[in-house]
Each structure stands twice: as structure tokens, then as C-alpha cells.
Amino acid sequence: MSIFESIFLGIIQGIFMFFPVSSTSHLVLTQHWLIQRGSSLPAPESAEMIFFDLIVHVGTLVSIAVVFRRSLSRFLYRVWDDLVSLISSPQSLPSKSFSLKLRPEKTPSLTKIKKDRKDEKLYLRLALLGMLSVLVTGLIGFPLKSVFKEVFATPSAIAITLSITGILLWYTDMKVKQPRGLREINPFVATVIGIGQGLALIPGLSRSGMTISFALFVGLKRQWAAEYSFFIAFPTILGATLLQSIELSQTESIALDVLPLVIGFIVSAIVGIFALQIVLNFLYRAKFRYFSYYLWILAIIVAFGMENN
Predict the structure, then answer these.
(1) Sign, CA torsion 13/32/138/163
(2) Is residue 211 within 8 Å of residue 229, measured between CB atoms?
(3) Cα distance between residue 201 and residue 196, in whole Å
(4) Other CB atoms closer than 10 Å to residue 9's CB: what's the count?
(5) Cα separation of 252 and 243, whole Å?
(6) Which residues contact 179 (CB under 8 A, 6 or more apart)?
(7) Cβ proximity of 1 and 257 under 8 Å
(8) Is there a contact between 285 and 80 (Cβ–Cβ < 8 Å)?
(9) What tens digit of pLDDT does each residue of 51-78 get?
(10) What is the DSSP string of 287-302?
């Protein structure tokens, strides 16, 4: 892999990670496109390219951490505070409403923090439900590993999954105002969202699109569906990266140099910061039908273009 190719693929990941159009499928399709034009890149389903894809996915997690650094630090502080409070004075988890508020915001004042303490252990409850979603994702994803490899190597299959993602995004735009608030996320809701995220491990099925769509299926308000989707991205992507990296290192040798991996990581993180800031407004305003048009056009190009080359 050349330096130019690692930069190019890092840019693709950084841009498309936060659009509900499947960054993985764009990486795979870009790799197919480069190979068809004479690149010496390994095949998209090879251990080298799967490992590179994992690295640039972790790079975009850095983007989320940077953009939402204040909100995430506040969330972690409250989870720890709730955990200490539970250990020192055990009591049942309440159900009073709260907002994760993953949008960039100013550092909360002491007055705000004291007011939040009245919410008691709701942050800890959300953290536990997020862990449940991630667990369900793993249970769904592990049996489908062989299917994933087939999809990585088949552009026609990616065209189908892109079309499915477009249909789901169109559906989310047609949904009326939902009744379920963030405080009403329960194990059932967390499980359904985890199933959606597990299916999104297949290239062409957008992770954010699937989790938000499945959250809407069970009545969660759009804003909370979007914020929960970002919340569970961290443990999901980090866990998948660790497990798959261990598996790859045990079964196959990875011949990629360190420099392209580092460059791809840095580029995806930097580009992702700007891309996330640009698309946040579109995400929260539910303008997903525009992404549907794009996905359907891309699916046609993939189905009738790349297969004929």
C-alpha cells in the first residue's frame, strides 16, 4: 500500500463514517476501484485490508472523542459518580428523564452538576443498557463472520445491502414524532438496537443508519436514537477491532508496513472531525431521504458498473 492510497482511504473513512451510508462499503468499493485500475493493493477480503479498515475505524472514534469531548467527559464522570454512590448506598435505579447531550457544549457549571445529581443513577443505567446492546451485537455478529467475508468480496451483494440501507433511511424520514424518551430506554429497546448494530457489521448496512432505524422501530425519539447510536459506537468498534486483530494475528500474517497504518489512522481522525461537525445538523434534523437517493444511485452503479469491469 502506497502513502497516497493510505491517505485516500483514510479520507474516505473519515468522510463516510458519520453519514448513514456505510463507511465500510465505501472502503471496500474504493479498494475494488483502485485494484481495477492497476493498484497493487491486497484484495478487500484479505487480512491486510481488513486490518487496515479496522485501524481507520478506530481513527474515526478519535473524531467523536474530540468533537464531543466535554459531553463524554461529563458522562464518564457521572457514571463513576453513580457507581460510587451505588456501592456506598445501594438503591434501585430511578427512571427520571435525562439527556446524554452528545452535542458540543460548554463545560457544565457547579450548579448544573449539583442539579444533575438529583437524577441519581440514570447515567449508570444507560451505561449498563449500552453494554447490553454491545453484547447483543456480538451475539449477532459472531455467527455471521463467514457471511461478512463473502460480502467483502462481492460488489453485487454490497449493491443489495446499500439498497436496503436506503429503504431504511427513507422509512426513518417518514416516521411521525416518536413517544419514547431517553429515560424510557429499557432492556428490550437496548436489545433491538443491538440487533440492528449486529446486522450492520455486513458491509453496505450502515451502523448509524441501522441503529437509528431500529431505535425508531421501537418508538425512541429521533434525537435520543442518534445520541445512543454514537454512545455505543465506542465499545462496539474498539471491541470488534481488538477481537478481529487477535484473530488475524493468530491465523494469517499481515504484510502491511506500519507507516500506511499510522497515516490512515491520522487522516481518518482529522477528516472525521470536520465531517462530523458538518453532518451533525443533518443527522439531528432527520434529512435521511437525501442519503437514500445517494445510496440507490450508488447501488445501481455498483450492480451494473463494477461487475461488468
Answers:
(1) positive
(2) yes
(3) 9
(4) 26
(5) 14
(6) 219, 221
(7) yes
(8) no
(9) 888 889 889 999 888 887 887 888 788 8
(10) -THHHHHHHHHHHHHH
Which set of grid coordinates corresponds to residue 136? 447483543
Q: ∠ CA(44), CA(50), CA(52), 5° rounding?
A: 105
The grid cell for 72 is: 463524554
Q: Give every CB contact of residue 12 below 8 A, 6+ residues apart in sequence.
A: 23, 26, 27, 30
The closest alpha carbon to 256, from 25, 76, 5, belongs to 5
Contacts of 278 (CB under 8 A, 6+ apart): none
What is the C-alpha separation between 100 and 43, in angstroms, rounded?
40
Global pTM? 0.78
pLDDT above 60 (res 11) = yes
Q: Give 242's strand partners.
A: none
What residues pair up with 166 in beta bridges, in sequence order? none
Structural domain range at position 62? 3-308
Neighbours of 99 (CB within 10 A): 15
User: Per the structure, how many domains does the chain have?
Assistant: 1
Biggest CA pair distance of the chain: 66
Eight-class DSSP state of 200: T
Buried b (16+ CB within 10 A) or exposed e, 204-242: bbbbbbbbbbbbbbbebbbbbbbbbbbbbbebbbeebbe
Contacts of 71 (CB under 8 A, 6+ apart): 100, 101, 102, 103, 104, 105
pLDDT band at 138; cut points 50, 70, 90: confident
Structure letter (DSSP) for residue 119 = G
Give the tens place of pLDDT for each residue, 89-124: 655 444 444 455 555 445 444 444 444 444 557 778
